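Encode chain A's predicted structure.
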Amino acid sequence: MAKAYLQITLIINAQEREAAVNVYTKYKEPFLSGIAGAVSKELLVRDEDVQVLHGFNSEAEANAYLESDLFTNDVVVGLKDLLQAEQEIRIYNTF
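Encoded structure for chain A:
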C-alpha cells in the first residue's frame, strides 16, 4: 500500500489527450520497475484536465522521482508540447 502519493495535474486539449495517454503508457512500466519506492501509477481523465497519480512508499521517494532522468528527460519532454499550462504537482502522505 502506498504511503505517499504524487499527483500531477496536466491541462491538455481534448485533441491531444490520446498523445498524453501514449506518454503515460510508454513510461508506466519503466516507472514501476525502475523507480525506487514506486508502487502504483494511475491515469485519471476528466473533461477539464488529466491527472497522473503515482503511489510511493515514502514522500522522499516521490520527491526523488521528480528529479529522476525518467521524469525530467523522458516524461516531461514527452508531454511538453501537449501542455496548455504549467503542470501542477502535489505530494500527499497517508497515515
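The chain has a mean pLDDT of 96.
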